[in-house]
Amino acid sequence: MKIMVAIKRVIDYAVKIRVKPDKSGVVTQNVKMSMNPFCEIALEEALRMRESGLASEVVAVTMGPSQCLDTLRTGLAMGADRGIHVDSTSALHPLHVAKILMNLVQIEKPSLIILGKQAIDDDCNQTGQMVAGLLNWPQGTFASKVVLDKEKEEVTVDREVDDGIETVQLKLPAVITTDLRLNQPRYATLPNIMKAKSKPIKKFTPQELNVEIKSDLEIVEVTEPPKRKAGVMVSSVDELIDKLKNEAKVI
């Protein structure tokens, strides 16, 4: 059984984001970039399935300019068997990514696609659902626990929802998106980093996959969130309740 995992190159979570002077986006030049944390969790889950004998191969897929190869190599160093790089200098929105994955599925024939539930740069939380819709595959989003039954060709997913945990049972092939509490990703060791250099990476362009990169979205302006006001010390519970009622208007 083959598992396909999508990984994304984003600004490192520890970096302070700066908005460009013209407010057209955020500064990415000379900024540390890393694999999206949710994608790390997705890849870790796929690797654990392979290591337990439930899968035979894990294929990591990334999309974007040539710099994304560094992120892909990180995925290979974590343990992915091989990589696919879809080379594009154009901005890729969730629907573009979903269409590319849909066409890669026709080539690779995976039984399971695992993605992070969202990327920390745009927080869209759309790609997994769009891929499932385009492929007409069942989906288990926001997964906090995944149990794969290879013999029955089904997967059970515990989903984190507003009311608690929802459990769904999906027939393979299926799409899963991962939540933070699913697992703790491993670090890439030095020997595995060296081995990753010799692992195969297949390259495509969106055009070769019959995907037109044409966006219906326009970024009008990017601004920083307003600065938080300083806290206020109150002398009693009554004063706190009064401020919550009359100033904050929350009760």
From TrEMBL:
Give the top-rank taxon of the lineage listed in the UniProt record for this protein.
Eukaryota
> Where does this protein chiefly localize?
mitochondrion
Origin organism is Arachis duranensis
Q: Which UniProt keywords apply?
A: Electron transport, Mitochondrion, Transport
Looking at the record, the residues that make up the Electron transfer flavoprotein alpha/beta-subunit N-terminal domain are: 23-213
What job does this protein perform? The electron transfer flavoprotein serves as a specific electron acceptor for several dehydrogenases, including five acyl-CoA dehydrogenases, glutaryl-CoA and sarcosine dehydrogenase. It transfers the electrons to the main mitochondrial respiratory chain via ETF-ubiquinone oxidoreductase (ETF dehydrogenase).
What name does the UniProt record give this protein? Answer: Electron transfer flavoprotein subunit beta
The lineage, from the top, is: Eukaryota, Viridiplantae, Streptophyta, Embryophyta, Tracheophyta
What is said about its interaction partners and assembly?
Heterodimer of an alpha and a beta subunit.
Sequence similarity = Belongs to the ETF beta-subunit/FixA family.
The molecular function GO annotations come to:
electron transfer activity
Q: Which Pfam families does UniProt cross-reference here?
A: ETF
The places in or outside the cell where this protein is found are: Mitochondrion matrix
Q: Output one GO BP term.
A: fatty acid beta-oxidation using acyl-CoA dehydrogenase
Q: Does the keyword Mitochondrion apply?
A: yes
GO cellular component terms, A-Z = mitochondrial matrix
